[in-house]
Design brief:
The chain has about 350 residues and is α/β, with parallel strands linked by helices. It has 12 helices and 11 strands. The strands form 2 sheets. It has an 8-stranded parallel β-barrel with strand order 4-5-6-7-8-9-10-11, surrounded by 4 helices. A 3-stranded antiparallel β-sheet has the order 1-2-3, with no helix packed on it. It is globular, with a radius of gyration of 20 Å.
Length: about 350
């Protein structure tokens, strides 16, 4: 489903002219919920690089461009990210039936009852997220990571209860293995509970195995949707690190040295060489490497929505324009990309054929 979105923000002294894009809407797996192909997340940005004023501008601009899904988590800046998003949505007065918002449960604090996926923490985290986000229900609620100390059936039952209470509409997982997701479905079936609808995995040109190979049976068997994060590999696929690390980039932020170390490794330097080649390929195709990387993600039919992260309005506006180049990612372009990255997961083996 595709709509042309062209509205104007009216809450600011100087109205923000929205990005004119043709936004596509995709079903969240086999559910009936339709999410914008591009969505807006708050990891690293809201509460870290983005204050309430700028967050409000980003949300308004995204919404005016057709974005209808905003992603968050209790662990993002210890809840501050959700507070900022909630205040921004509230100040904008967005009709609740025109957007979807999410939270994630796992990293709620340092005390034993503030971590993990126990029934208690799931309930407490949901209630806290509703307050911070200033909403009556969450559209999507994710288990932020698997919890090996909590029986999966306990987690499934806790999520089912929240759905029965009307506090959440859909629940899912993030960075769970295919085996763990399968166990969750088995527990739901055995106890007549609501199974997970979606998974939120990392997916980009350098992280493909889980989405394209490991999860392959889950799309057909369970109709699983995906809300993918880090489509630009923490900025690497924008090309801005081709000549070094800018002072204002994510890799230069305190507390994110692990990202910097990742790209300074031998493997990271090899990936940078590939980004330089992808940058030239994108240029030859008449687009930026950022748009090429985002559009490549959108070409995967099992991707329900691509979560964008932005610390500046100009950055968000540019990323949204990736919708305009999806049609340019032809089979020939895909083949040229594969020749550079050389990491396509193998197809299932058909023995004896």
């Amino acid at each position: 489903m595709i709509f042309i979105i062209q509205t104007f923000a009216t809450i600011f002294a100087t109205p923000i002219k929205p990005v004119e894009v043709i936004m596509e809407y995709r079903r969240l797996g086999s559910s009936g919920l339709k999410l914008s192909a591009l969505s807006l997340g708050s990891w690293v940005t809201f509460g870290k690089q983005v204050d309430l004023h700028d967050a409000t501008i980003l949300l308004q601009s995204a919404y005016d461009a057709g974005v209808n899904f905003f992603d968050n988590a209790e662990g993002y800046e210890a809840g501050e990210s959700e507070k900022i998003m909630g205040e921004a949505i509230d100040s904008l007065g967005l009709p609740r039936d025109t957007f979807a918002v999410s939270s994630k449960v796992f990293f709620g604090g340092r005390k034993p009852t503030q971590m993990g996926l126990s029934a208690k923490h799931i309930r407490d985290a949901c209630d806290a997220a509703l307050v911070r986000l200033k909403v009556d229900y969450l559209d999507l609620f994710f288990c932020h990571r698997p919890d090996i100390d909590t029986p999966i059936v306990e987690t499934v039952r806790a999520m089912h209860t929240l759905i029965q209470q009307g506090k959440i509409l859909y629940w899912g997982t993030s960075e769970w293995s295919a085996q763990q997701i399968t166990e969750a479905h088995a527990a739901a079936m055995a106890h007549n509970l609501t199974p997970p609808t979606m998974e939120q995995p990392q997916y980009n040109l350098f992280n493909r195995d889980r989405v394209e190979a490991e999860y392959r049976p889950l799309y057909e068997n369970y109709g699983m949707g995906t809300t993918i994060w880090s489509p630009l590999a923490s900025g690497l696929l924008t090309g801005k690190y081709n000549d070094g690390i800018p002072d204002d980039s994510r890799l230069a932020l305190p507390g994110y040295e692990w990202l910097k170390d990742r790209w300074n490794s031998e493997e990271g330097r090899m990936k940078l060489e590939k980004v330089r080649a992808l940058t030239q390929l994108a240029k030859d195709q008449g687009m930026s490497v950022t748009h090429l990387a985002l559009a490549w993600c959108l070409k995967n039919p099992n991707v329900s929505t691509v979560i964008l992260g932005a610390s500046r309005l100009s950055q968000l506006e540019d990323n949204l324009k990736a919708m305009d180049v999806v049609e340019k990612i032809t089979p020939e372009t895909l083949a040229a990309i594969e020749a550079i990255v050389e990491n396509k997961p193998a197809a299932p083996e058909r023995y004896g054929q």
